[in-house]
Write a structure and sequence with these properties.
alpha+beta, about 45% helix, Endothetial_C_recpt
Length: about 220
């Protein structure tokens, strides 16, 4: 919230202006002794829109029709099952007897004067780990010191279009354009418009969580 206020001040937002439109997602994954569990939520303009608990993702706001949402739920469940299997596989090769917690925080803002801001931040075990620079599609290490785990994760994330150019396009274009569309509808919900936003956020964060397997592997042995 402090960051948002500072950014608003830098952009010249007046107190009399309306609040920015926002879509924010927070997702956490915990890995311990070969098991993983994920949970999180998404909010549209401060209102809870989606909830993730274990293998279940719930649509709190009716942004997609039941048949489309059923397919989305199955996609999420299948990914989480696959991710869990990978964690078990890597744990057998390089067991880690302590908990690893990964948190992904991402989203976009559309300010009343038309300016925008998008972000993607990652923490590992409660410490800033990586951040994504949307302007040039690059990952920056935030971990204190020259830690090999952070260097390994940064190198892996820079290899793939899904975690560089695709993520940049989603955060810088797709997310913003849907908020712009919402602003022209004076707050009315649009089922068709929000479906790609929800899917993009889910897949974007899962791409990073998939790379977390490499982080755990690196931590458990050598990079």
């Amino acid at each position: 919230m402090l960051r948002l206020l500072l950014l608003c001040g830098a952009l010249g937002c007046g107190a009399e202006q309306a609040a920015p439109l926002t879509f924010i997602m927070l997702q956490r994954t915990r890995v311990f002794k070969g098991s993983s569990i994920s949970w999180g939520n998404a909010s549209l303009n401060g209102q809870l829109s989606h909830l993730l608990e274990g293998l279940n993702v719930t649509q709190v706001l009716p942004l997609e029709p039941p048949d489309a949402w059923a397919r989305r739920q199955q996609d999420v469940t299948n990914y989480l099952l696959y991710f869990g299997q990978l964690v078990k596989l890597f744990s057998k090769e390089r067991p880690i007897n302590y908990t690893q917690s990964l948190s992904c925080h991402l989203g976009c803002w559309l300010f009343p004067n038309g300016t925008t801001h998008s972000f993607y931040e990652v923490t590992l075990n409660g410490t800033a780990f990586l951040s994504f620079h949307v302007s040039n599609a690059t990952w920056e290490r935030r971990w204190p010191g020259g830690d090999a785990v952070a260097a390994f994760a940064q190198k892996e994330l820079m290899k793939y279009p899904m975690t560089t150019q695709d993520l940049q396009h989603f955060l810088n274009t797709t997310c913003i354009s849907i908020l712009q569309a919402q602003s022209t509808r004076t707050g009315k919900q649009s089922t068709r418009s929000h479906a790609p936003l929800v899917l993009g956020l889910i897949l974007g964060s899962f791409a990073l969580l998939g790379m977390a397997v490499g982080i755990f592997w690196c931590t458990g042995g050598s990079c």
